[in-house]
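By convention, the token line describes the chain's fold. To illustrate:
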Amino acid sequence: MSKTFMKLLALIAATTLVAAACSAKGDDDASGGDEGESPGAEEATSGDDGDGASAADFGDLSDVCGPGDLTIAADENAGSPDKLLIGVSNDRTSQIRPGLNKEMWDASNAFVAWCNEQGGIGGLPIEIVDLDGKLLEVETSMARACNGVFMMVGGGQVQDNLQFTGKPESDFHECGLAEIPGFTVSPEKSESNGQVQPIPHPGAEISSAWMKDFKKLYPDESQSMTEVWGELPAMETIKNQTLAVMDSEDVENAGVFTYPVTGQADWTPSAQQVIGSGATSLHFVGEPTNLGALVKSLREQGWEGVPMVETNHYDQTFIDSAGAENAEGSVMRSAFHPFEEAADWPATQQYIDIVNDNVDDPKIAVLGAQSFSAWLLFAEAAKACGESNDGELSRECILTSAADIDEWTGGGLHSPHDPGPEGGPSGTCGMLVVVKDGQFERLFPEVGSDDDSGDGFSCHDEAVVAVPENEGLGIIGPNQPI
């Protein structure tokens, strides 16, 4: 394999967090969690934690897991009628990017250990099936899924378009799988049938709420914006969405510039393009280290504009790459309560505690919290399915129950979203984070202010923008529910 190709794949891997609108705030160590299995069900606990809350509660969700007598549809139980075999898609042992999205694997193992301790889902213990695609082995991981899981939950793969092989033994649709993913990347996956997302990511529309808030805070700097992106299909989807937002909010497009997908040692030419455009703000599609290198070069050349960037740059590696002084004032959008405010948001603190209590050397990250939200949605949908389907769990029933939920916050982990297929884009409610004194902190809205639409988020319910350039990129699989 050529070095150039390996670099390309590494960069593709980095764009996962852009497409998923998430960020990492831990290390990249790939340790933690069992390889391919999770702790078995232990004796169900009862009672409360001393303040009236059940040990099986999470945030504002009551009795997420617990004992019961649910069963699994005989033709979908993967040969294990007494336990839920759940596949977790990931790429964490890739030799190209070791530890990629490890936080999702950690969050999944933590949820399963915690849930099984309460009695499982309706009395059914969960066992994780490791669907590690290693970036280059997605088809192999899907073959394992087709042969050995009830559903897929809480995961994601960088090259998730490769889950559609067209082969009965390894194609997501052909073998009748269903999923509640932690994230999706490609339009082929995000707009396909057979899955419900806790935080939807459609390609053909996007929320402009973040731009409305940015304009309110920075009326001068938001007048013009330049777009810098790496030439990859996944990045192009985000680029098209951003340009549509700029147009809808009357922000001048000062220029669209690309950088080599293999990266570049010297970001001076890119910085000169941005400066030469006259842009007063910058949007960047890529990974935090590359953004940091560009911002460092921009500051060294005297640019005083504001980087207004995606959630994946809410990451210490951005500050480290740019340098704290250069990163100062950079703004990121987010739909999750910041970890820095965990003491103020019980679900955020509970997520951190559950992962730390159940995984050795865990990686705590927003993408992990998004995975945890997917697991919570699966558990809630499974309970609803059992109640409406005479106690039997089926893929279609669970997906229908998940899609029937109109407002989802992951128990209070993030802003409200509609998981259903008509739920629209994520981000109509969100917040802005800023780098100040070398640290991340909330920028907007101030909690409890007039700008706070609730729980510390600013909402613009009508801020949905069509993205014509991205229309028709997705596929709808045959014979799949939802």
About this structure: Residues 1-47 have pLDDT under 50 and may be disordered.
